[in-house]
Structure formats: C-alpha cells, structure tokens
Specification:
The protein is mainly α. The chain is built from 6 helices and no strands. It starts with a helix and ends in a 5-residue tail after the last helix.
Length: about 150
C-alpha cells in the first residue's frame, strides 16, 4: 500500500476517534447533572415494565445519550482503523459502507445533527480501499502474477 493510501486510512480513523471523543465530552457536559445518579443505582432494574420504555427517566435518557451511545464503539473503531493504517493495511470496504450508511441514515432522521460529519471518514475509507485495490491490481500485472 502506498503512503498516500495509508494516510487516508489513518486520517479516517483519526476522524472517527475525534467524533467519538467530542460526542462523549459534549454530551457529558450537557448531562452533567445526571451523571452522579448513575453511580447511585438509580438506573438498576429500570424500567419496571415494557410500557415505561417510551417514558425514560431523565437519568436513563442521559445515560443513553452519553455512555450508552455509539460514541465509545465509534472511537474504538477509529482506533482500529488507525492501527490498520499504521500497519499499511486497508480495512474492508464494508466498514466504510457501514459507517456511511449509518451516518446518512442518522442525518436523514435527525437534522440538524453532526451525523453527516461521519460521511467524510466513510468516503476516505472507501477511497483508500479503491486505491489499495488498484495498486494491488497494478502490482500483479506489472510482475506478471495473476490470471492470464
């Protein structure tokens, strides 16, 4: 993989880590008054019945906005992508497709929101995948390897 492709992968991963961290910090600041109750056991055995799922308590809603959101997995996926780039590897295309579909779906359902920002790393991942595939094909043809 060329260094340009590696840079695309590392930047995409860095953006995903950044988006996850910003989400965690911003929502934690906005939900600060509810965070102490998480450690007091107020959310244990909640909700008492399935009908209560549509009426979340503020402490529970804040938990799902901050810690229970997709911010932590998004940051971990970003760190994994950065690791791929550092090793000179390109993640599979389904990762870029999945992040892109998730971002566009979230943006379509909830606007204005920062969901649309995740389209940028998704496009970078797909571009890196495409570039890596072309480089591999060119290398195979140049060396005479591959099917005739």
């Amino acid at each position: 993989m060329s260094s340009d492709t590696s840079v695309l992968v590392r930047r995409a991963g860095g953006m995903l880590v950044f988006l996850g961290c910003v989400h965690l910090v911003a929502t934690a600041v906005l939900s600060a008054e509810h965070i102490p109750s998480w450690f007091g056991g107020s959310m244990w055995f909640f909700p008492p019945g399935p009908e209560d799922l549509s009426r979340l308590a503020p402490d529970v809603g804040a938990f799902w906005l901050v810690w229970g959101s997709f911010a932590v997995p998004l940051g971990l996926i970003g760190a994994l992508v950065v690791g791929f780039g550092r090793r000179g590897q390109v993640p599979p295309a389904y990762l870029g497709i999945g992040v892109g579909v998730w971002a566009l779906g979230g943006a379509a359902l909830f606007e204005p929101s920062p969901f649309v920002l995740a389209v940028v790393p998704a496009v970078l991942l797909l571009a890196a995948r495409r570039r890596g595939t072309v480089e591999r094909d060119d290398a195979g043809q140049a060396s005479g390897a591959g099917p005739a």
